[in-house]
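Bump. Still looking for Thermosome subunit structure tokens.
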Amino acid sequence: MADGPMVVLSDESQRTSGEDARSMNLEAGRAVAETIRTTLGPRGMDKMLVDQGGNVVVTNDGVTLLEEMDVDHPAADMVVDVATTQEEEVGDGTTSAVILAGALLGNAEELLEQDIHPTSIVAGYRHAAETVTEVFEDIATEVDPDDTEVLEQVAGTAMTGKGAETAKDLLSEMVVSAVRAAVREDGTVDQDAVDVRQFYGASIDDSEFVEGVLFDIEPVHQNMSRDLDDANVLVYEGDIEVSESEVGAEASVGDMADLQGFVEREQSELSDKVDAIVEAGADVVLADGGIDEYAAELLVEHGITAFRRVDDDKRQRVAAATGAERVGDLKLLTSDHLGHAGSVHERVIRDVTVRRQADHESTVVFGDLPEEGIGTILLRGGTEHVLDEVERAVVDSVGVVSAAIEDGHVLPGGGAPEIEASLALREEADSVEGREQLAVEAFAEAFEDGPRTLAENAGHDAIDALVDMTARHDGGDVNVGIDADTGELVEMFEDGVVEPLRVKTTAVNSAVDASTMILRIDDVISAGDLSVGGEDEDEGGAGGPPGGAGGMGGGMGGMM
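Sorry for the wait, here they are.
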């Protein structure tokens, strides 16, 4: 052993080190950004994703694209995480964040070719990120939760380019109304209180905001009332059926009397459960499990409307809206556990005809609720793909309006903050010593990639746009950005293109975290088995290289 190198890796392991590993990772990260680059902006293009089952998704939403794509590279996954973080924190700006990460990686690769050490690049990037955050905070404009005009502009900006333009004003107004109603006493927004539902048919212009909870499950019995006032609501975490011990037991029936006694015992058990509901004073029951036919008939006799197999999200939403306490044992049920709804009624959403037989699609609405701020945005649209894209746009808008209300600050859109930050970074670079100065300048150049892409996707000359924007910002016009429709430079607040401060700061932080983490990797090892704790290879564990690392030598390694 003293005469040769010690071998510590198995024969199945593959290892890529040094410049090769770093170059491979940088290439993979940049490839993710290039994939979605053309979707940026109000005039960005859509992507069609088709899975193995033939299901089609048409969208230009960054996080949706990256989640649907088959990304098969560990470094690429880190860039995908940028979009995921952005979506979770704000709800919009995912494409911008990924494009910034890709630009930072591309510029870092050029610095590496100049023999700049990765640690110097990382230090420069982090210094630049702090400077950018300060710049954004300096140029941000305050917004009040009552300033509905600006908030609607924030909502509309998030929707632009996502298939909702034809009804942007209507949808923005609904989003702002819904979010403002969901503001808590501490100033935060309960986004779970804003539900978004879609029904096919009609046009997007027929969308509306419904105060209350929409519930598309039919009552368990056709004779149960669909129109109740002042209803006490029970949210039951169980079923109204014969217990499993009774159902599973073997019974030996000698004569009809024994059979009758067996049936009576089952009915007696069900009657006891219904009696507990009646005694508590419930008018509406939402059950987690099934409801026996005999129990359903008893509930009808007592004028109680019941729904069975209601999923957890719906039960939780109704419980929160009505003030009900979820109950798991009917023996412990009291009136204190019940919630209240001023009205519970069926609403026909649209009439349909199938094979010449009239039918309708309807939903049950829990309205006049004690908990204020509970509402549902009801979206309409002609096709499934259109509605799906509009729903993504509305959900993004809910996130950005919530962020604007919670933080109280907004920024101009159209690439204005990026140009302002780029100028500040170039000035800051003069005060940075050593090779970190080059990294700060590279960061400034990366920030220009967003406005450049915005202009390119809109069909305008990117170089002219950048030169003109830089000159205007250098002259003090900090809110000037590019109008994607005309290519002209306009004052973004006057043009109604507004974004929350959090969209930009989160994008910067996420992009810097991902790019610097990739830069610090100088060794990639594809292990045959990464199971932890001595697990047998044949029983799971990791079962192979992370993210297909065994094939990483081929660039993206089967990204899509």
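DSSP finds 18 helices and 18 strands in the chain.

Edit: fixed formatting.
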